[in-house]
Write a structure and sequence with these properties.
12 helices; TIM Barrel; alpha/beta; globular; nine-stranded mixed sheet; Lyase, Ornithine Decarboxylase, Chain A, domain 1; binds pyridoxal-5'-phosphate; single chain; eight-stranded parallel β-barrel
């Protein structure tokens, strides 16, 4: 069970909303820091453990700075994400560049920043060499194909566009070695939003065994193993959160039985979690605009799936708290909607909630990762502001709300004034 407690009072949120109208995203700096510390503590047995925060989850420099202060690097997969890291002062091997179908300019930027480049395909070795030159250190992304089952969000690895097959992987390291690459990493990302301890442990075991095999057959030294992100969070109240300490200990014993047993210690263990770090510590704050009673009872919010598309995209559950009504019985059933002209624009279907009134503030939980960042402008919806609740209790605007001017800025229509 996870307590789905909202960390602030209704009065505190109304005070913010008086300055920054709903809908907006609100992140909790304390929660972000504690989450990063817990992950780092769970793997502190590996002295050079590093979490590379997956920027795509929450691409805001203020958040990246907080996480960098907690020792996290960044996992980037695009030019914009590389530039964001650069602006925060993150560079060199504190950046892991894990892209796919990569354009030349992104490899060039990653090289210029000194990032660890993690190649998604065998052919990218020659491509990278041609467009940006080969770095001293390279990593490759492994796709185990039929050897693993994947999970619902990321799917069957055989259907996944990512990574190299097992034979390609051996070929890639051999070729890179022969081209003079001296330092090697190994990467995979096969699960997403995974709450199963066993599945996460299995990924680590697969990677450690592979590192042993690669090192012994090719006579190379793997100095870094990145077991990817994908640690899940308890979106539903009845779900238990992953016990990071226990997971860390379990991975430690597999490491001892594989890496250490073969004399390959020390190898730097890395992760690139996004959701785990920011997911639970960001909320979409929205207000009830209308109530509607037809074949079903509807709550119409001032946010839409353009602000948070996970429910529409994956049927994902996001817990809802009606502020000030936490203690009331959830004895009413509603569909909770936005205002897009799309019937899947629903944050919840048949959700039991307390009796809701127009003007109530609703907090949508676990929106801190893959929330604002997946937002879009369909129906001319403007993207929400992002706010950070600082450690000292102050609230900082870290992204302003979009305006109509922003929305129209790219149009070219001579004679019109917007
Ligand atoms: C999306 C992504 C992540 C982060 O995934 P989470 O589920 O947010 O932990 C990490 N690595 C890669 C390569 C990704 O594409």
């Amino acid at each position: 069970m996870t307590d789905k407690l909202f960390p602030w009072t209704k009065a505190q949120i109304e005070a913010i909303a008086a300055e920054y109208p709903t809908p907006f995203y609100l992140y909790d700096e304390r929660g972000l820091r504690e989450q990063a510390r817990q992950l780092n503590a769970a793997f502190s047995w590996n002295p050079s453990f590093k979490e590379y925060f997956a920027v795509k989850a929450t691409p805001n420099p203020a958040i990246l700075r907080v996480l960098h202060e907690e020792g996290c690097g960044t996992d980037c997969s695009s030019l914009a994400e590389l530039v964001l890291s650069e602006k925060v002062g993150i560079g060199g091997e504190e950046i892991m560049f894990t892209s796919n179908n990569t354009p030349a300019e992104e490899f060039q930027k990653a090289r210029a920043l000194g990032a660890i480049i993690n190649l998604d395909d065998l052919a990218h070795l020659d491509f990278l060499e041609r467009v940006a030159g080969l770095p001293e250190m390279l990593s490759f992304r492994y796709n185990p194909g039929p050897l693993r089952t994947g999970n619902a969000i990321i799917g069957d690895p055989r259907e996944a566009k990512f990574g190299l097959t097992r034979p390609q992987l051996f070929e890639a390291y051999r070729r890179a070695r022969d081209k003079g690459v001296a330092r090697f990493g190994l990467h995979t990302m096969v699960v997403s939003n995974e709450l199963s301890h066993a599945a996460l442990l299995e990924t680590a075991r697969m990677m450690f065994e592979l590192a042993v095999e690669l090192s012994t057959t090719l006579d190379i030294r793997i100095e870094l193993i990145n077991i990817g992100g994908g640690i899940g969070i308890a979106y539903r109240p009845e779900q238990p959160a992953v016990d990071l300490q226990a997971l860390g200990e379990a991975i430690r014993s597999v490491y001892a039985a594989t890496i250490s047993a073969h004399g390959l210690d020390p190898i730097r263990l890395c992760m690139e979690c996004g959701r785990l770090i920011t997911g639970p510590h960001g909320f979409l704050i929205t207000r009830v605009r209308h109530l509607k009673d037809t074949y079903k009872r509807y709550i119409g919010l001032d946010a839409t799936m353009a602000d948070l598309m996970r429910p529409a995209l994956y049927g994902a559950y996001h817990h809802l708290t009606v502020l000030g009504k936490e203690a009331q019985p959830a004895d009413q059933i509603y569909d909770v909607t936005g205002s897009l002209c799309e019937n899947n624009d629903k944050f919840a279907i048949d959700r039991p909630l307390p009796d809701v009134a127009v003007g109530d503030v609703v907090a949508i939980h676990d929106a801190g990762a893959h929330g604002h960042s997946m937002g879009f402008n369909y129906n001319g919806k403007l993207r929400a502001a992002e706010l950070l609740w600082r450690l000292d209790g102050s609230v900082q605007l870290i992204r302003r709300r979009e305006t109509l001017d922003d929305y129209f800025r790219t149009l070219r229509f001579p004679g019109a004034e917007w």
